[in-house]
Write a structure and sequence with these properties.
The structure is a single chain. The protein has 686 residues and is α+β, with helices and mostly antiparallel strands. Helix content is 42%, strand content 17%. It has 21 helices and 25 strands. The strands form eight sheets. Strands 19-18-17-20-23 form a five-stranded antiparallel β-sheet. The chain has a four-stranded parallel β-sheet with strand order 3-2-1-13, with helices on both faces. Strands 5-4-9-10 form a four-stranded antiparallel β-sheet, with no helix packed on it. Helix 5 (200-209) packs antiparallel against helix 6 (217-229) and helix 13 runs parallel beside helix 16. The protein is flat and about 100 Å long.
């Protein structure tokens, strides 16, 4: 660990521009990195907080094909949505770039060329899967097949999402091109590889020995597993039509592999920032007194802890990350988040549905952050955290303090009198909190830090509840002056301590208390008066509003609609039954009929008792359709009837036939029914 760094370079994983930002991205990467950056700025540290859109690679090409537009149109569309979402949500990047920018193409090309010129790559001709119909080599994600390890039939060419195994496309059993659906063939192609096995000793010393005690167990464990499995050369180029050209002769039609060019995006984004701000970018990436921290999700651990460090080591002039505090995954209502299946809470939609409630989501995601294990986001928990914690604890304390100050002193901070033992104890406890919260943040324990922030609000609530100034204000106004002064110091401290976690709330609270931005973190412990006597505050204003059940139900209903839509999109016909002869079919007598009477079967939720005119008679048929149709809506319906089915008694009613129905993809029952004019009851189906 770097002690007393002179500056900090903080990176947040570059989001793919093949879709918007969802809560899994926020919980895993962007909220914790923003908390850390804001906290360091409040400490007066030199910080650059870097990110940008990842706009190359097969994910973009796949999205473009799916939407019938060009890759450029895809990246422009989603880059715009992502940028606005981050800005509206208050993620405080110092620079947000994009890998399609000229400065990135130049930086990535120069990085590759230096390693190439110094002989750091291996050049090999290998056999890769090729789609003859599409006339192109297939990137890993354009191939699906059966996983050789768990037999999952829908594994991708780079990874099986069922068992988590990393794969090569050529490992798949029965591979299939997702472009044409045909079976690909093997074809020779030349590529350049980074020989990761040559960096094994360096990685073991740097991580397994050097970071054994300070990296998160989930990160350390995954890296250890990769190293023990044995590192192998990894291709840094690909046969693709979208990305950065490989800058050497004989590489026409080849692009830099996205995993190689994307992390270099941190460097190019820093260069972009430095040029704009008139700074030198190199100390932020090349000075040993700089602390570099990568915030990522667990699916990116290998790239940021093994591959990118090996690239930096090979280049020779860059520092290595001091920490990579990767989070695990956040699930949604018990199911894995999925961009392709629309199973997500999208940030831009949340901001429309819950305007001015950015901090509620930041709070819920931090309080439930998947720091060491996968966690689950539910809308009910979101509501409870808002109503029972933000409203009832934080908001309640601030509201009482501001209302009472305006009521008793017209909004002017009272002059305190002699402090009691409880006053001094409370203020001493308040002064200790910045160090407690800082300790948690510095160890990347943001859930723990948020809990300590809420304990400051609890301290204020307890102080007011114990002291009860409203009960003694008439008989002992001098004592109440001191009580309100103490409570206001806690309120002022909260306006600073909450800023990394709840920036919109902190700003709102500063406006209510009429505080400027000159406060920093250490003032809470060092200053005797955070908000001095005689200072005028503003009127009370609710920091948080209760979220009602109907607002939450709308979100739950939206997810249920997604489930239904996914089921419809992925609906598959049942396999064909066993072959029958014409003679078998000839035994079946199907007739057109009309339902003329209908009523519910007593004490049976699923059954309707129907009278059906079959054209040859009127008969009773009991049908299990009551959960889909009311008696009133089926009367007059024309239906297809199997009339020569053997009668069967159901709850004492003899049923003489069967109606033909089928399910829609959404699971709704519908009648198999000819609506053409001129079809008479009794007409045979043959």
């Amino acid at each position: 660990m770097i002690q007393n760094p002179k500056r900090y370079t903080i990176t947040a994983a570059l989001p793919y521009t093949n879709g918007p930002i969802h809560i899994g991205h926020l919980a895993g990467v962007y909220v914790p990195s923003d908390i850390y950056a804001r906290f360091l700025r409040l400490q007066g540290e030199d910080v650059v907080f870097i990110c940008g859109s990842d706009e190359h690679g097969v994910a973009i090409s796949m999205k473009a094909k799916k939407e019938g537009i060009t890759p450029q149109e895809v990246i422009d569309k989603y880059d715009g949505i992502i940028r606005k979402s981050f800005e509206d949500f208050g993620i405080s990047f110092d620079n947000y770039s994009r890998t399609s920018a000229e400065i990135h193409h130049k930086t990535a090309s120069e990085f590759f060329r230096k390693l190439y010129d110094e002989g750091k790559f291996i050049e090999e001709v290998t056999e890769q899967l090729y789609d003859e119909k599409a006339d192109q080599f297939l990137a890993d994600r354009f191939v699906t097949g059966t996983c050789p390890k768990c037999s999952n039939e829908e594994a991708y060419g780079d990874q099986c999402e069922k068992c988590g195994s990393s794969l090569n496309a050529t490992d798949l059993i029965n591979p299939k091109s997702t472009i044409t659906g045909t079976k690909p063939v093997l074809k020779s192609t030349k590529h350049w590889f980074l020989p990761l096995d040559q960096y094994d000793t360096f990685l073991r010393q740097w991580i397994l020995e050097g970071h054994k005690n300070d990296w998160k167990p989930n990160v350390y464990g995954q890296v250890k597993s990769w190293l023990e499995d044995g590192l192998r050369p990894r291709a840094v180029t690909r046969d693709l039509d979208w990305g950065i050209d490989v800058p050497v002769e004989g590489a026409e039609g080849k692009k830099l592999y996205v995993w190689f060019d994307a992390p270099i995006g941190y460097i190019s984004s820093t260069k972009e920032w430095a040029a704009r701000e008139g700074k030198d970018w190199e100390p932020y990436w090349k000075s040993e007194d700089t602390k570099l921290v990568h915030f990522i999700g667990k699916d990116n651990i290998v790239f940021h802890c093994v591959i990118f460090p090996a690239m930096l080591k090979a280049e020779g002039s860059y520092i290595l990350p001091d920490n990579v505090p990767a989070n695990e995954f956040l699930n949604l209502e018990g199911n894995k988040l999925s961009t392709s299946k629309n199973w997500a809470v999208w940030l831009h939609e949340y901001l429309l549905d819950f305007p001015e409630k950015q901090d509620v989501l930041r709070y819920a995601l931090t309080a439930n952050a998947p720091e060491t294990k996968d966690n689950d986001f539910t809308w009910k928990d979101f509501q409870a955290r808002n109503n029972n914690e933000l409203v009832a604890i934080f908001g309640n304390f601030i509201n009482r303090v501001v209302v009472l100050t305006n009521k008793y002193y017209n909004g002017v901070i009272p002059q305190p009198n002699e402090l009691s033992e409880i006053d001094e104890q409370t203020l001493a406890e308040l002064k200790a909190y910045p160090a407690v919260i800082a300790s948690s943040v510095e160890r990347y324990r943001f859930r723990e830090a948020l809990g300590e922030l809420m304990n400051v609000a609890r301290l204020g609530n307890k102080y007011l509840a114990d002291e009860e100034p409203w009960k003694i204000v008439k008989e002992n106004p001098a004592r109440v002056q001191t009580q309100m002064y103490v409570a206001l110091q806690i309120a002022a401290a909260l306006s600073v301590l909450s800023e990394p976690f709840l920036p919109f709330t902190a700003n709102k609270l500063k406006n209510i208390l009429k505080l400027n931005d000159d406060f920093n973190w250490s003032d809470i412990s060092n200053k005797s008066d955070l908000i001095p006597a005689g200072h005028q505050i503003g009127e009370a204003e609710l920091l948080f509003a209760k979220i009602e059940d109907d607002e939450i139900q709308k979100q739950i209903d939206k997810l249920e609609a997604t489930k239904v839509a996914n089921k419809a999109e992925n609906a598959k016909a049942e396999p064909q039954k066993d072959i029958i002869t014409f003679e078998d079919f000839a035994k079946v007598d199907l007739r057109i009929g009309t339902i003329i009477e209908a009523e519910k079967m007593p004490k049976a939720n699923k059954l309707l008792v129907l009278k059906v005119d079959t054209g040859i008679d009127v008969r009773t048929i009991v049908s299990g359709i009551a959960e889909h149709f009311s008696p009133e809506e089926v009367i007059g319906k024309r239906v297809t009837v199997l009339v020569n089915l053997a009668p069967r008694a159901l709850r004492g009613v003899e049923s003489e036939g069967m109606l033909l129905l089928t399910n829609t993809a959404e699971g709704k029952l519908v009648f198999v029914n000819p609506d053409a004019e001129g079809v008479i009851n009794g007409a045979q189906i043959s």
